[in-house]
Inverse folding.
């Protein structure tokens, strides 16, 4: 506080006033005389020996009681259920949080926990002896905020020692509040799931309510594309609990531990008569290879954390932010070997990952859904430190033809990259969409249109490289010239056509060729037609007609991509003025 006195005030008067006011206001006081810029006297509030200023005061019994209550809550469910976790190869939930948010010095990066006293009254009664075998500490669900690898995140984690991690009224309330806070402050969410689903015997008050468990999935939908949502499964997540992992942007399952299904094996048997084990019904292998619901599969809990740590390196905290850049690194293999990697023959297989290794920064390749829809590789990587999402046809898998599952996989990946401002790189080497009665039954047209729609609607920088084959509608899905890429580039091995030479010759010249009786003459004519056709679809002609923007020497491909991504970093694209499309 500053006080100014008349110029005839003495120093003694100034000092007395400063001392009195400091004691009265409990604030520092400076007293000025006349127009002086320097105080004539100053005084700090006195340090009186009362409770407020007594540095030797200790916590009271009231605080000690509270700490004891917190300690009891943090022990979790009954000891017999905590002991079973070790038999199942699982960590107790608070040990799991230490793994995720601790460090080498055992210092926790847990910032705070919300709702630790949920169900305290009921739980406290059980502790006092009314029902000691069935406590509900924290209602079996933990929520809060923490620092994860230097990034602030929201988290939720089920306590499997409390009613098998089941969800009920108070836990649902905590879950919803955490989601709502994430929507407001724009920080990623980690869901550490280990839940048997809704608590059936306590469903009143949380199942169908406006703010009940159904609101989880409404909030998931509202958070989708707003902040990254990453779910790790640590046990059998059944029914309602299984929707959180599938709503998340990324789902990690743990081998021989995780499972998710719309109903338990016992319920499946009751409804259908089918007898099946949990892992066969909805284990990691099922969802990694067949449903495509698992993005990553971990060997154990520690590996799951490492996978999420790598994943987060490519993601921003929220929408409309640029993803974090890393330190540029040279590729693990020299770009000079790119051309030698690609066979001359259009139908000869090679692993597209060998090409990717010569383009992206060493150690940055991070593949998602690698066991699902293998005809297309979807992965994050860096090029000169810049995160990119790669969509690449894989010639080692059914010649790189696009099947329903690989089309859907690519569409979802593109959609996610676009939501989080991650530029896209398409490496095209495909004979096109697969044909046949089986793929028609599996909705090749429906899922193929999702692929094309996602590519069409993405507004992040897109570069398409015609590596070799670009046949049929494959070039459409792979962001060819008509799909608003920043550039369509080609390597000298590239070809763009409605169909490949063999199919084209058969379609156009089959009758004429059948009229040639001599086999050698017919074979020679076929070869002549094939060469003429390939000249017509060669990328040099496409470049001559400005269908593609540039033919790039393969050794220069990485440098070309670096320059173009740098140049188009802040490009602005607008979609038509509409509410949203109807395809995804």
């Amino acid at each position: 506080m500053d006080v100014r006195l008349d110029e005839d005030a003495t120093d003694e008067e100034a000092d007395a006033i400063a001392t009195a006011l400091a004691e009265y206001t409990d604030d520092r006081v400076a007293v000025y005389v006349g127009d002086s810029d320097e105080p004539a006297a100053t005084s700090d509030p006195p340090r009186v020996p009362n409770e407020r200023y007594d540095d030797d005061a200790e916590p009271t019994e009231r605080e000690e009681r509270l700490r004891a209550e917190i300690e009891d809550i943090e022990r979790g469910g009954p000891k017999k259920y905590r002991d079973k976790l070790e038999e199942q190869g699982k960590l107790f939930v608070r040990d799991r949080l230490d793994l995720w948010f601790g460090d080498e010095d055992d210092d926790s990066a847990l910032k705070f926990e919300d709702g630790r006293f949920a169900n305290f009254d009921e739980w406290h009664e059980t502790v006092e002896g009314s029902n000691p075998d069935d406590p509900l500490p924290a209602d079996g669900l933990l929520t809060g905020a923490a620092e994860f690898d230097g990034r602030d995140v929201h988290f939720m984690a089920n306590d499997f020692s409390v009613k098998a991690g089941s969800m009920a009224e108070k836990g649902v309330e905590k879950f919803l509040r955490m989601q709502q806070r994430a929507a407001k402050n724009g920080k990623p969410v980690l869901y550490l799931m280990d839940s048997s689903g809704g608590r059936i015997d306590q469903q009143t008050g949380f199942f169908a309510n406006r703010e009940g468990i159904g609101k989880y999935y409404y909030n998931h939908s509202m958070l989708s594309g707003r902040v990254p949502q990453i779910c790790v499964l640590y046990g059998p997540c059944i029914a309602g609990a299984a929707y959180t992992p599938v709503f998340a942007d990324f789902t990690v399952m743990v081998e021989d531990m995780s499972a998710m299904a719309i109903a338990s094996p016992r319920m499946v048997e009751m409804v259908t008569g089918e007898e099946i084990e949990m892992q066969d019904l909805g284990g990691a292998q099922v969802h990694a290879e067949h449903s495509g619901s698992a993005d990553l599969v971990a060997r154990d809990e520690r590996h799951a954390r490492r996978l999420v740590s790598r994943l987060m390196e490519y993601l921003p905290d929220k929408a409309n932010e640029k993803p974090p850049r890393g330190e540029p690194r040279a590729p693990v293999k020299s770009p000079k070997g790119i051309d030698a990697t690609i066979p001359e023959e259009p139908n000869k297989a090679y692993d597209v990952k060998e090409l990717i290794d010569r383009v992206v920064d060493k150690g940055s390749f991070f593949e998602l859904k690698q066991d699902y829809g293998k005809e297309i590789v979807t992965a994050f990587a860096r090029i000169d430190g810049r995160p990119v999402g790669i969509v690449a046809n894989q010639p080692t898998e059914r010649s790189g033809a696009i099947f329903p599952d690989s089309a859907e996989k690519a569409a979802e990946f593109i959609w996610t990259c676009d939501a989080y401002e991650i530029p896209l790189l398409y490496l095209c080497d495909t004979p096109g969409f697969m044909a046949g009665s089986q793929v028609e039954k599996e909705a090749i047209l429906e899922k193929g249109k999702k692929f094309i729609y996602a590519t069409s609607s993405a507004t992040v920088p897109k570069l398409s490289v015609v590596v070799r084959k670009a046949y049929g509608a494959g070039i459409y899905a792979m962001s060819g010239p008509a799909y608003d890429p920043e550039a369509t580039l080609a390597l000298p091995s590239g070809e763009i056509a409605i169909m490949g030479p063999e199919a084209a010759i058969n379609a156009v010249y089959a009758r004429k060729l059948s009229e040639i009786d001599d086999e050698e003459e017919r074979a020679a004519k076929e070869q002549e037609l094939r060469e003429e056709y390939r000249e017509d679809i060669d990328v040099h002609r496409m470049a001559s007609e400005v269908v593609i923007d540039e033919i790039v020497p393969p050794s220069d491909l990485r440098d070309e991509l670096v320059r173009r991504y740098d140049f188009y970093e802040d490009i602005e694209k607008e979609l038509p003025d509409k509410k949203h499309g109807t395809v995804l």
Summary: DSSP finds 22 helices and 20 strands in the chain. The chain has a mean pLDDT of 90. Residues 58 and 220 are 45 Å apart (CA to CA). Residues 519-537 form the longest helix (19 residues).
